[in-house]
Amino acid sequence: MKSYKPLLVVVLLLFTVYACTASSSQQDAASSINIPRTEADVPRISVSEAKAAFDAGQAVIVDVRSAQSFAANRVDGAISIPLQNFEGSSIINLSLQKDQWLITYCT
Questions:
Q1: Which residues does residue 101 pair with via DSSP β-bridges, in sequence order?
Q2: Residue 16 and which of 30, 42, 85, 101 are 20 to 30 A apart at CA?
Q3: Residues 105 and 61: beta-carbon distance below 8 Å
């Protein structure tokens, strides 16, 4: 009877190499997304650029001020997600298309 140990070792080695390569590719893809890490890294746009993107359906405008400030005065069509809730579940529930901007404002 033939021994299948060498074949099993080769299959496991190939599987390990494949798994490591796939994991590396996923990490490379995630690191290629340009996520701002500091306030200085956040791109700024003009009001006219924001309005044009919103009017064209290319952006969602999010007011990160308090709920009271939002209720008192807001940009028409903006949604309210106070800054303290921004990293919580409220942001997850936004339905964005892949190419849409998320424009936040606080003044």
A1: 59
A2: 30
A3: yes
**What token pair was written down for 76?**
């028409």
DSSP code for 58: S
On whether the pTM is more than 0.85, the answer is: no
Do residues 17 and 70 make contact, with C-beta atoms less than 8 angstroms apart? no
Q: How far apart, in Å, do the first and last CA atoms of the chain sit?
A: 78
* Runs of H (alpha helix) within the chain: 5-31, 47-55, 67-72, 89-92
Spatial separation of the C-alpha atoms in residues 11 and 14, rounded to whole Å? 5
Q: Round to whole Å and give the CA distance between 106 and 3.
A: 69
Local structure of 75: helix, strand or coil = coil
Going residue by residue through the chain, which has 107 residues, state the pLDDT in tens, using 9 for 90 and above.
455 555 555 555 555 555 555 544 445 444 556 667 888 888 888 989 999 999 999 988 888 899 999 999 998 989 888 888 776 665 666 677 777 888 888 87
